[in-house]
C-alpha cells in the first residue's frame, strides 16, 4: 500500500504514519512546518519530508490513499491534485475505521476523561495479554505510539474525539467509528468555535449513539442528565448500561477499590473512580472478569498530563494536568483538594483554547477554582489575536471566574516571577494547561521550584 499523509506533522497524524510504516506500507507525507517530538520521530523512521511545503507533484496515480490532517486547508494544492486524480481521500478517523471495520470496536467519548478511560482499558488488556488495536489522545506509558494497527488483533480501542474530522469533513471524528461498545463519560460544553450552542454540542453525542452497531452496548455516566436523556433514545437493539463511581474507600491517603478483592490504586479523585467504573464495564464486555481487572488496574499509573506527578520533595508535590475546560478544571482541583486536605493548594491554569479565550464563554468558569487556596490564571493576548477573537482583559477573566482575588497574568515572565517567589512548604502546586504557558518548560520549572 502506498499512502500519503497531508499534514503529517500533527501529533495524531505522525503517529499514524509511524504505525503504517511499521506495517510495511510505503508512507510519504508533507507539512508546512513540523515541531518536536514529531520531527525527530519521523526523521528516525525516514519519514520526515525533505523540505517544508505542499508539492502537488508528490501526488500521483500510484498512491492507494491520501490521509488528510486537520491542520491542512481546504484549498491545499496536494489535496486538490488528489481530488483531480480520483485518489481515495480519508480523514484520520475514517482511515482508522477502514483499518478496523471487521474488528470489535470500543470507542470512548465524552467531554472529559476519555483519554484516561481509554488508557485504563488499554492497560488492562495489555496486562491480561490480549492483543488489540488502539488510538489514544496522548502517548501512554508502556506504549510506543498513540496508534497501533495489527492484522492479528480482533479488538480495537479508540478514544472518540468530538472535534472535526478534516478540512473537508465537518463531522465529529467519533461519528466515523461505529462502535460495538460505546462509552460516554459526561458532557460539558467545549469547542465553542465549532458548536456555538450547548444544545448543538450535546446533539453530537446523541448522533454518536445512533452509530452504535446493532446489539451493541452504550456504557454511560448515570449522573449526567444529558447522558440519561441520550441513553433513553438509543436504538432498541442497543443495551444502555449506566455507571457511577467504582465502590471504594480511602485509608491513610491511599484509595482502595472495594471489589471482590480490596485493591489499592495509584490514581485518585472522584473522576478517576468514575473512569475506572466505565473501564471495568467495557473490559467485562470483552470477557475480562473482576479479579483480573482489579489485579491489572492496581498497576495503572495514569496517563501523561492527567494528574501526572512531575516533581516531589518532602511535603511538596507538583502535578501537571491537561485540564483547561471548566468541568476538567473543577474536577481536577477537587480531586487534589480531597487527596491533600492538609496541604496548601496552589492552582495555576492557562486559558489557551478557542473556547476558553472567548469572552462569551468565560462565565462557564464561574467558581471552578474556588477549592484552591491560591488561584492563578494565565493567558497570552497574542494568542487571542491569532485566533481572531475579541480582546479580553484580566478583569474580564476575574469576572468570568467570579473571583476578585484571582491572580491573572498575561506575561509569562511575570508568571514565572510569581511562581518562583512562593514558599512551597507543605504545598501542592497544580499546573493545568493544554499548552505550555507560551514557551515555559513546565517540568524543568517544577524541579526548580521544589529545589530552590
Automatic annotation (TrEMBL):
Residues 108-282 form the Mur ligase central domain. Keywords: ATP-binding, Cell cycle, Cell division, Cell shape, Cell wall biogenesis/degradation, Ligase, Nucleotide-binding, Peptidoglycan synthesis. Pfam families: Mur_ligase (PF01225), Mur_ligase_C (PF02875), Mur_ligase_M (PF08245). Residues 306-435 form the Mur ligase C-terminal domain. The keyword Protein biosynthesis does not apply. One of its GO terms (biological process) is peptidoglycan biosynthetic process. Its EC number is 6.3.2.8. It comes from the Bacteria. GO terms for molecular function: ATP binding; UDP-N-acetylmuramate-L-alanine ligase activity. Residues 2-101 form the Mur ligase N-terminal catalytic domain. InterPro entries: Mur-like_cat_sf (IPR036565), Mur_ligase_C (IPR004101), Mur_ligase_C_dom_sf (IPR036615), Mur_ligase_cen (IPR013221), Mur_ligase_N (IPR000713), MurCDEF_pg_biosynth (IPR050061). SUPFAM superfamilies: MurCD N-terminal domain, MurD-like peptide ligases, catalytic domain, MurD-like peptide ligases, peptide-binding domain. This is UDP-N-acetylmuramate--L-alanine ligase. It comes from Odoribacter splanchnicus (strain ATCC 29572 / DSM 20712 / CIP 104287 / JCM 15291 / NCTC 10825 / 1651/6) (Bacteroides splanchnicus).
Amino acid at each position: 500500500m502506498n499512502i500519503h499523509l497531508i499534514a503529517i506533522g500533527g501529533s495524531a497524524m505522525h503517529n499514524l504514519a509511524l504505525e503504517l510504516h511499521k506495517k510495511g506500507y510505503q508512507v510519504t507525507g508533507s507539512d508546512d512546518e513540523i515541531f518536536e517530538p514529531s520531527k525527530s520521530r519521523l526523521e528516525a523512521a525516514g519519514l520526515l519530508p525533505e523540505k517544508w511545503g505542499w508539492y502537488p507533484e508528490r501526488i500521483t496515480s500510484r498512491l492507494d490513499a491520501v490521509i488528510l490532517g486537520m491542520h491542512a486547508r481546504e484549498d491545499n494544492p496536494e489535496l486538490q491534485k488528489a481530488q483531480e486524480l480520483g485518489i481515495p481521500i480519508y480523514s484520520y478517523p475514517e482511515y482508522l475505521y477502514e483499518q478496523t471495520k471487521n474488528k470489535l470496536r470500543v470507542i470512548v467519548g465524552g467531554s472529559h476523561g476519555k483519554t484516561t478511560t481509554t488508557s485504563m482499558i488499554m492497560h488492562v488488556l495489555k496486562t491480561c495479554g490480549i492483543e488489540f488495536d488502539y488510538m489514544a489522545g496522548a502517548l501512554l506509558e508502556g506504549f510506543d505510539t498513540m496508534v497501533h494497527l495489527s492484522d492479528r488483533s480482533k479488538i480495537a480501542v479508540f478514544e472518540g474525539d468530538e472535534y472535526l474530522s478534516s478540512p473537508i469533513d465537518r463531522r465529529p471524528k467519533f461519528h466515523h467509528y461505529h462502535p460495538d461498545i460505546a462509552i460516554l463519560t459526561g458532557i460539558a460544553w467545549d469547542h465553542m468555535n465549532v458548536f456555538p450552542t450547548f444544545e448543538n454540542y450535546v446533539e453530537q453525542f446523541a448522533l454518536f449513539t445512533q452509530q452504535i452497531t446493532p446489539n451493541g452496548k452504550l456504557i454511560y455516566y448515570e449522573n449526567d442528565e444529558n447522558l440519561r436523556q441520550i441513553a433513553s433514545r438509543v436504538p432498541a437493539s442497543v443495551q444502555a448500561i449506566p455507571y457511577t463511581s467504582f465502590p471504594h474507600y480511602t485509608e491513610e491517603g491511599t484509595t482502595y477499590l472495594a471489589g471482590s478483592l480490596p485493591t489499592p490504586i495509584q490514581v485518585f479523585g472522584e473522576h478517576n473512580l468514575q473512569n475506572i467504573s466505565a473501564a471495568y464495564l467495557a473490559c467485562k464486555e470483552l470477557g475480562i472478569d473482576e479479579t483480573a481487572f482489579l489485579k491489572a488496574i492496581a498497576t495503572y499509573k495514569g496517563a501523561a498530563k492527567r494528574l501526572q506527578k512531575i516533581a516531589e520533595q518532602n511535603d511538596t508535590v507538583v502535578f501537571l494536568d491537561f485540564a483547561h475546560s471548566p468541568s476538567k478544571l473543577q474536577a481536577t482541583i477537587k480531586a487534589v483538594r480531597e487527596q491533600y486536605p492538609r496541604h496548601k493548594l496552589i492552582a495555576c491554569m492557562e486559558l489557551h483554547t478557542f473556547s476558553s479565550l472567548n469572552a462569551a464563554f468565560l462565565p462557564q468558569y464561574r467558581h471552578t477554582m474556588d477549592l484552591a487556596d491560591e488561584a492563578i490564571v494565565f493567558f497570552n493576548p497574542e494568542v487571542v489575536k491569532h485566533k481572531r477573537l475579541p480582546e479580553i482583559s484580566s478583569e474580564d477573566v476575574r469576572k468570568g471566574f467570579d473571583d476578585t482575588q484571582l491572580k491573572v497574568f498575561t506575561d509569562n515572565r511575570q508568571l514565572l516571577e510569581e511562581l518562583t517567589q512562593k514558599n512551597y512548604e507543605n504545598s501542592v502546586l497544580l499546573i493545568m494547561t493544554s499548552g505550555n504557558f507560551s514557551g515555559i518548560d513546565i517540568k524543568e520549572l517544577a524541579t526548580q521550584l521544589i529545589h530552590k
